Amino acid sequence: xxxxxxxxxxxxxxxxxxxxxxxxxxxxxxxxxxxxxxxxxxxxxxxxxxxxxxxxxxxxxxxxxxxxxxxxxxxxxxxxxxxxxxxxxxxxxxxxxxxxxxxxxxxxxxxxxxxxxxxxxxxxxxxxxxxxxxxxxxxxxxxxxxxxxxxxxxxxxxxxxxxxxxxxxxxxxxxxxxxxxxxxxxxxxxxxxxxxxxxxxxxxxxxxxxxxxxxxxxxxxxxxxxxxxxxxxxxxxxxxxxxxxxxxxxxxxxxxxxxxxxxxxxxxxxxxxxxxxxxxxxxxxxxxxxxxxxxxxxxxxxxxxxxxxxxxxxxxxxxxxxxxxxxxxxxxxxxxxxxxxxxxxxxxxxxxxx
Length: 354
Ligand SMILES: *Cc1c(COP(=O)(O)O)cnc(C)c1O
Ligand code: SF4
Description:
ten-stranded mixed β-sheet; binds pyridoxal-5'-phosphate; binds iron/sulfur cluster; TIM Barrel; 10 strands
């Protein structure tokens, strides 16, 4: 029982479950709050504390103290930041700068018009064959460039499980359910298991896909119990992690990723091209290298979605194209992600040809 709550990478390889599994879901009582849940609660939430931990508290920085989307960053992620470096690419992803308050034309609250793609609150159907479930509004980390930073989770959260299932059961054109959020891996194993088990009873569904930043920012979440929930199903499981910089993937994250892969889960990575974070060929090449060494295939590199508050992260398309050309000229083909942008109304992410 205790082992189930431990990060999977701490266990001997023989104890790591592999597909197919017939193990019953073991539930965790609330009294046994797993380590990862404690770490989630213990995340850094005050900018002053973050700057202090990084020996940057002597600097006077113009910060955004916006209470709607406040600072949140797990301590394990802070530990990967370079001390004394205000330009650290991980710090830049989480530090709320005053620049977020600038009003920039073209940057909107719902840049992808998501609220008009909902079949039900919290169920987005934009592309054929797959549907996206907003399983929770919670995230382990608050990324300043997030295109859902203004999303009305309170009203759009899938409150009614049964309604969602009914809709999915009635639409046989659907083959894949995407767990999104928020971050689906902030859900308890029980809640994840409830979703997965219910979806597995719908005959036309073949796959589930989780989009999550948790394996990167809180790798202790990948426990043996979590692996069991993700793999004890007839549905194929894919996991798209969201990493933007090689420094995000330390040894512990690599272990967690290799464990997920060894359990039979296909792993991909999606990044956003961000000014000051990964806007160089070296940063992109290093990221792809570290991903592949952890069994993760580069998938998409997104141009920034133009969400209000994130304009200072934007890299123009011409520069993005040049970066990708240079990357392609340096590395193996499978290390080059597809450069894409999201265009409202298109039935796919629009490739930007390089
Ligand atoms: C991005 C997205 C998907 C997944 O698109 P893929 O190209 O299959 O990765 C599905 N649904 C919605 C609403 C999306 O925004
Ligand atoms: S983890 Fe994903 S959904 Fe959550 S704030 Fe970051 S980018 Fe947004």
